[in-house]
Amino acid sequence: MSPNGNTSTDSLGGPTSLDGPAAYGFTDATAAYFRANPAPGPQPPGGVSPGRVVRLDRNRVLVASASGLLHLPYPADGEVAATGDWVWLGHDRVGEPAITAVLPRQSALSRKRAFEHSSEEQVLGANIDIVGVVVPVDRPLTHNRLERTLVAAWDSGATPLVVITKADLAGIADDVVGEVMLQSAGVEVVTTSAEQGDGLDELLRHVPRGGTLVLLGPSGAGKSTLINALAGREIQETGAVRAGDGKGRHTTTSRELVPLPGGVVLMDTPGVRGFGLFDAESGMDEMFNDLEELFARCRFADCGHGQEPGCAVQAALAEDVLDVRRWNSYLKLQRELAALNRRHDAAARRAYQREWHQKVAVAGQGQRAAERYRHDQAEERSERSSKRRKR
């Protein structure tokens, strides 16, 4: 850093030293990533410096910089930022502090937007190292939800981790842990009790120094209580869980980065009721790699895994090697992804058709205008000829 607090540059205009928000995960590795992705275009007076998106508000973005937190406008170029994004900070044309560029994401946790007919992606968080899938022991385990969340976690580029909460509230914690371990296909499982402080150190050991942990789970799963226990202070309001259905009200309303002791950053998220998959083929391969191995053993390369002879899947089902529920869950998730792809294709077709119709309409208007022009010119020539004959 130069004496005035700005980033110094070398003879080529690149940053030689960088200072960033250490409490929000800025490390030497992050500084190297900034150098590998320099801010585009001419640099504003005073240079640029690293920052990280802490929270998205309705009209502003809360960004952490080396000097503190800043409320800034959304990027002027229309680039959509997400909580956890690394950004270059500088000044706009009138000299006001602004986000000048968003760096490429090293990981991104996404889901399909939460309305039925949407095929759009919603990025829940960026540059995450560990995705903690929260499973409370005080309610029945929802197998399909656990699997689809783990698929999304694998697909994000981060490492999934199952975090069991409220282990002090039920005498069946061991049974739940065993069931979850079978269900999570090799993903590590950590058992915690925020009330008693159990399992917190083990959970944090899974996150590298300067790394980012996100916790995903339904409302009432105990995320806010766990966050307060991890932070060692009251950060999130906690709410009671309804006795009737085990659900809690949303005590967290936006995604936000929370610095934790020891250099770890936690991304708090609202309770996620639904988790529609978005383009998660790689996550499916990770979560169901045992099925991929079975597919390779089928007699026919194009086996539909139904009544074909030599089907390894049907043999595994008949021998109870493959759980019927797991197979049905895989088929359900594949149908969901196929339906999403069809909607993508349909949206592309509609966009193409709209563009084509617009071109046809414009061409038609041009053709009609040309015809009117030729008609008017012919009438004018006819009138001039008639006048000449009368003379």
Descriptive terms for the model:
9 helices; 18% strand; six-stranded mixed β-sheet; five-stranded antiparallel β-sheet; alpha/beta; 35% helix
What's the arrangement of secondary structure elements?
Elements: H1 28-36, E1 49-56, E2 61-65, E3 68-72, E4 86-91, E5 97-102, E6 108-112, E7 121-126, E8 130-136, H2 143-155, E9 159-165, H3 173-183, E10 189-191, H4 200-205, E11 212-216, H5 223-231, E12 256-259, E13 265-268, H6 281-287, H7 289-297, H8 312-318, H9 324-390
Parallel strand pairs: 8-9, 8-11, 9-10, 11-13
Antiparallel strand pairs: 1-2, 1-4, 2-3, 4-5, 6-7, 12-13
What can you see in these coordinates?
The structure is a single chain. The protein is of the alpha/beta class and 391 residues long. The protein contains nine helices and 13 strands. The strands form three sheets. The protein has a six-stranded mixed β-sheet, sandwiched between helices. It has a five-stranded antiparallel β-sheet with strand order 3-2-1-4-5, with no helix packed on it. A two-stranded antiparallel ribbon has the order 6-7. Strand 2 and strand 3 (68-72) form a beta hairpin. The chain is flat. Residues 1-6, 8-14, 114-119, 239-252 and 276-280 have low confidence and may be disordered.
> Can you write the helix and strand succession as a string?
HEEEEEEEEHEHEHEHEEHHHH
- Spatial order of the strands forming the largest sheet: 10-9-8-11-13-12
Q: Look at the helices and sheets and give the structural class.
A: alpha/beta
What is the global morphology? flat
What does the main sheet amount to? 6 strands, mixed
